[in-house]
Amino acid sequence: MDDIDTPLLMAGGRLEIDLGALADNFRSIAARVAPARAAAVVKANGYGLGATRAAAALAEAGCRDFFVAHLAEALAVRAALPGDATLAVLNGLPSGAERPCADAGIVPVLNSVEQAMRWRDTAAALGHALPAIVQVDSGMSRLGMTVEEAAMLAADASFTARVPVTLVMSHLACADTPDHPANAAQRDRFIAAAALFPQARRSLANSGGVFLPAAYHFDLVRPGVALYGGAPNDRGANPMRPVIRLDARVIQCRSIGAGDGVGYGLSFAATGETRIATIGVGYADGLPRTLGNRGAAWFNGVRLPIAGRVSMDSITLDISALPDGALAAGDWVELIGPHQALDDLARDAGTISYEILTSLGHRYHRTYRNGDLKGQAEGA
Ligand SMILES: *Cc1c(COP(=O)(O)O)cnc(C)c1O
C-alpha cells in the first residue's frame, strides 16, 4: 500500500514523514483521553502517508484498535499489525464480502439491519460467533442504523446469540466546532442507543471529539487527522506535532518585465521587473489549482507567492523578494514545513488538511524518519 520510492534525483518534490511525531501524537491523545483508550484511523492509505508504515509505528506506540474504510484497505494493512490488534471496517460490508472479512479476522461496522443479518448468517454458516461493531446514526445522517433499528437488533436473539457486539459507535458531524449545539444533541442520542448493548464498549469521538470535554470520550476515541498533524478543530494553536514536510525542487529561474504574463491563461501579469522560479510539483502531486495566484512557497524565511495558475507538473513563484541569485535551479523551497503549516496551505487552497494529505501524489521522493525497526523493514 505504500508508494514505490522515487529516487531523490528523479523527483520534483520530496515528502518527509516523521513517524516519531506520528507516534508522539498518538501518545499525547492517549494520555489526554485516559482512562478511555485511543484507536487510530488509518483509512485512505493512512491519510496519504502510507498505511502500513503508519500502522506499524502506531502499534509500536501502543495502539491496538485500528479503523479503515473498506475491506480492501483492511486486508492490505493487517500484516503490519500485531496479533492482538483489532482492525475494523467503518463502511461495513457489501453483500458477499462477509466471508473474506470473517476469514481474515477483521471486524465489520454494521451500519444497517441488512448488514447485521448477513453477518449473523455468516456466523451461523461458519458455526462460531463473529464479533461486530454496531454504528448508530446520532444525527449526521451518513452511516449507521437508527436507534429504533438498533433496538430491534438488540432484541433479536438470533443475532445476539451469534454476534457479540464489542463496540457501539457513532460519528460527530461538528466536533471541529466545539461550541456547536449539535455535539451535545448527538451525544445524548448516542448514550440512549448505546444503552441497548450494555456489554459493548462505546466510541463517539474523532480528532475533534478528542478535544471536546471528557464526557465525549467514552471507552474509545477514533482520531485520524490529528495523528497526522492536522488541526483537530478551529480553535487557537494546533496542539499536534507536524508529521510531514514537503519541499519542491526549483527547475528554472527567469526575469520578466512589465506586461509579461505567467502560466496558463497568463493570469499573472508582471507590473515591473519580476523574477520567476518554476518548481517541479503541480496539481498531479496534490497541490490544488485553487492555490493559483493565492498560495506561496518559502525559502530562507521569505514568502514566495505563487504567480499564475498551478500546472499539472509545475508551479511558478514570484521570487522578487529574494536577493538576485539567492535562489537557483536545484534549490529546494518549502511548501509544508516550519514556515507554512499543513493547515495554512489547506486554507490558502480553500480546503481542509484532510484533502491535502489524502491527495499527496505518488511522484514524491518519500522518506520515513524515526520509525521503529519493524516499520523500517516493511518499507519500500
Ligand atoms: C474518518 C473517520 C474518523 C477519523 O476522523 P478524523 O476527523 O480524521 O479524526 C473517525 N470515525 C469515523 C467514523 C470516520 O469516518
Task: Outline the structure in words.
This protein has helices at residues 19-33, 43-47, 51-60, 71-77, 98-103, 113-126, 147-154, 157-160, 181-194, 207-210, 342-348, 353-359, 373-377, and strands at 13-18, 37-38, 40-41, 65-68, 86-89, 107-110, 132-135, 165-169, 201-203, 220-221, 244-256, 261-262, 268-269, 274-279, 296-299, 302-305, 315-318, 332-336, 365-369. Helix 1 packs across helix 3 and helix 11 packs across helix 12. A hairpin with a 2-residue loop joins strand 15 and strand 16. Helices cover 28% and strands 21% of the residues. The protein is α/β, with parallel strands linked by helices and 380 residues long. Bound molecules: pyridoxal-5'-phosphate. The site of pyridoxal-5'-phosphate (PLP) has 10 residues, from loops.
Strand order within the widest beta sheet: 3-4-5-6-7-8-9
User: What is the percent of helical residues?
Assistant: 25-40%
Please outline the major beta sheet. Answer: 7 strands, parallel
Low-confidence stretches: 373-380
Number of helices: 13
In terms of quaternary structure, the protein is single chain
- Specify the overall morphology: elongated
Distance between the termini: 10 Å
Ligands, ions, cofactors: pyridoxal-5'-phosphate
Structural class given helices, strands, pairing?
alpha/beta
Number of strands: 19
The radius of gyration computed from the alpha-carbon positions, rounded to a whole number of angstroms, is 24 Å
| Averaged pLDDT | 96
Q: How much strand content do the residues show?
A: 15-25%
